[in-house]
Write a structure and sequence with these properties.
mainly alpha; 28 helices; 65% helix; 2% strand; two-stranded antiparallel sheet
Length: 506
Amino acid sequence: MVDVDTNFDRIRRGVWVGPNAAKPYVEWNDLSRVLTELLQWARSPESREKFDEVMYDSLKLLLKAANADVKNKVENLSKLTQRDVDTVTVTIIATANIIRLLRNSVVNLPRNQFLQVKTGVLDCILDSVYFYHDVGTKCHRVKHKIPYVLTYTPLCIEVIRAALQLTSNLCVGNHAVQGAVWTRLYPSMFSTLLCSIDKQVKNFVCSILFHCTAWIGSSALEEMLSGDEGKEMIRTSIGLCQVPNCLEWAQLFVEGLICVERFIDVYEICKNDNLVFTLLEVLSEKVQTSPSPNRKQLFGELESAVPVTTFLFLAKLLARNRQHLVDLATGEDSPEGEVTVRILRILASVTGLFQHYTRITNNTPFLECVVKILNEINNKQPIKFDQPKGEVTPDGSFAIRRELIRVITNMSCKNKDHQDKVRLLGGVHTVLNHCVVDQQNPYLPQWSIVALRMLMENNPENQDIIRGLQSQNIVNNEDMKKLGIEVAKMDGEKPRVAVVHPEPEK
């Protein structure tokens, strides 16, 4: 039995194809078995070190020979014999394994990546993407007349998957390769493959898009944003971020667009349909999730934070559409209001990240806008202390008051100017009014109490407001009565809690 090193050397010397070939044709069945063994062998760093320019030249010749053999056979599908069908099947499988071997050989080895580009392997790989896409399309078109060609379609997809994954690996950090790949595949092939029925194909396309665009000054990104085809590709990629079928590289691609300060451009592309919710969800997850080591390595210096310009833009949008929040929180319809609510939730989270986003946490006009919205909501529909209990179905108005108070809490923390601004706008009394349980705003009293603490801290003027409060009417609700608890005025007109006998249930 021939060992793996010997088989590697046989391929390198061109035993199967080229001037030193033992036969004028390739025995694809034998070669496929050899390649299967080499795939596992090439996973070790020591094995990958053995690949050189000669080996890559030999693999390129094998790849070209395989494509030529398949092309000759499938030119007239109706005349294929059973032997031809089997030969084509084995040849396509061997092609996929050649590309996988090329892929395995470049892992964590920039020298091999350079050699693949230098020897023209990359060009051959991109040719294979086009060629096997055409073969798969042709087979799919005649499947009703020639049923046996159905076996070729999934095999062609396997080749395209492997080719795109290798291409993505070669693009990492190499602007020259990115430019070459972009020239060959953009826009038609990228657009076509993004609509593939295969999830992995779409995922690897998004991976290439990420590497070509996720850096400041990318000419590829400028081209995408300036043309209709590029904008449609961005829309398609955002659609691939939707749960439960979210593709990892699609999300990374969209995150990359956000990190290179292109959120505003992307928002404008999808603002008129439901894709805007997906975009905001990606942004929200990016803000709230701690980056993994792998993502830090992918994004490099981009991973530091989402640019603050993104949130300043969202703050302006919220101010412009403030009436949406007022309408929803007071029970009126606002078809476009749900987007504004999502924006509010993101800003409520971001204002709590004091170290990263001081430009938004110190943005006094934004705080003023939020306090005025809360005041208007409370004036239009004061919150009730004793509300009837019932099941709450989250809708567009869900938790609006709570999120507004979260923003006030975060922006008033250790900020005397903002504490004073809230007081001057009448916001302290409004926050006090919200220290009640409200099923439509979970944790509302907790956030209101924290907000009051932030507003009172080292601020005598705000503290005086609390000291000057006078007791008003006493309200006893049904739940308190059932527990045998009652509040009543006693000595000095001060309220006291008394324990009474609970009323017997009838």
